[in-house]
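Course assignment 3, question 2. Fill in each field.
Student: A.L.
Task: Predict the tertiary structure for the chain below.
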Amino acid sequence: MRTVTLTSLRSQIRQRSDTEALTARFPDAELNEYANQSWAELYNLIILTNQDYYLSQTTITTSAGVHTYALPSDLYMDRGADVNVAGKVLTLDRWEFSERERWQYEFGWNNGGPLAYALIGNNIRFQPTPSGGYDVTLYYYPVPARMTVDGDVIDGHAGFEEYVV
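Answer field:
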């Protein structure tokens, strides 16, 4: 872990660009915005190379006859989902919109639990519709934290914060 504060990032940006005395020309708010934009881009690059530094998870418990549930409010991108069926953890397939009918009929071996999922808007939808309560673990990347106050930090891991600077 290698955390760096917003204050430190601003200072490094000013040093690197030799603009330390030009605070009126480049106010903190402007540099904060540039740092946040660069941080979001770096975060995206890290997760798109299958690095799971920022991976999070949540558990969704299904109910009989209900196939759609709200996603976590901080979800940026999903990584996968597992379901616990009769004590066994099974990886759910991710279905595409064009496959929505296919999954309605493929059940039986799993005791009525979901076999696949899709993210639709701000919801997750399971197919086939669960026939009972099952714990589904959704693995996802949260939205990158936006730095707004001087003490806010990002984790650059191995010096990746240099990209932000």
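Instructor remarks: The chain has a mean pLDDT of 90. The radius of gyration is 21 Å.
Grade: pending
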